[in-house]
Amino acid sequence: MSSIIKKAKEHYDNLSKVKRATVWITFCSFLQRGISFITVPIFTRLLSTSEYGSFSVYQSWESMAIYVVTLGVTYGGFNNGMMRYKDDREGYTSSVMGLVLVMGALWLALGMLFQGQVNG
Predict the structure, then answer these.
(1) Main-chain dihedrals φ then ψ at residue 84, nearest 5 degrees
(2) Is 72 left (phi over 0), alpha (psi -120 to 50) or beta?
(3) CA angle 55–24–85, rounded 5-degree value
(4) Residue 103 in contact with residue 72, Cβ under 8 Å?
């Protein structure tokens, strides 16, 4: 058993940074799905049908709002930008974060301005 772990560690150590990042992104993605898989039965037992329905609708609105507010830049587009701007990654990251911050502030201001209609 110990030799298998040593071989796996040696193989991992020989991977490039990109491949290591891919391994960890995949692992974390599975971990997130696993947590969701475990928590759904707990939520369905603790919440009534209407409460769980409201929770699910809230999650749907939240996931759509993230794409609308951030323009989806922080997901697939960010990785493409990091590859395109290899010389100035810090500048690109700063620009993306500035855009997301400004968009978030704009949507927050709009939400507060139309608070009655949004809550309705």
Answers:
(1) -75, -40
(2) left
(3) 100
(4) no
Q: What does the DSSP 8-state code read for residue 15?
A: S
Angle at 69 between CA 78 and CA 21, to 5 degrees: 25
Domain boundaries, the chain: 1-46, 49-120
Phi, psi (deg, nearest 5) at residue 14: -85, -5
Closest by alpha carbon to 70, among 98, 45, 48, 91? Answer: 98
The 10s digit of each residue's pLDDT in 91-118 is 988 988 898 899 999 989 998 999 888 7
pLDDT over 70 at 1, yes or no: no
- Pair of tokens at residue 36: 């969701």
Cα–Cα dist 87/79, whole Å: 14
